[in-house]
Specification:
By secondary structure, the chain is mainly alpha-helical. Helices cover about 75% and strands about 0% of the residues.
Length: about 70
């Protein structure tokens, strides 16, 4: 694994919130940010999968859904 350094610029308020979150979770600020990134990425993957499934399934049942909506 290749580690890359980066600078994260936060406002005073954002930095305070990150401090509080890290303290509340007993984690480092770096770990909190990495976990937030992982959670956000996982959510995006799930949304993309759902979109793909709905794109395949909805057209198949469009007529039925239209009839149910007008009933």
């Amino acid at each position: 694994m290749l580690d890359m350094a980066m600078t994260l610029r936060l406002s005073d308020e954002e930095n305070r919130r990150l401090d509080e979150l890290a303290a509340a979770e007993g984690r480092s600020k770096q770990e909190v940010v990495r976990l937030a990134l992982a959670e956000r990425w996982a959510r995006l993957q799930k949304e993309e999968q759902l979109s793909e499934v709905l794109g395949r399934v909805l057209p198949k049942y469009r007529g039925l859904l239209d009839r149910m909506g007008s009933a």
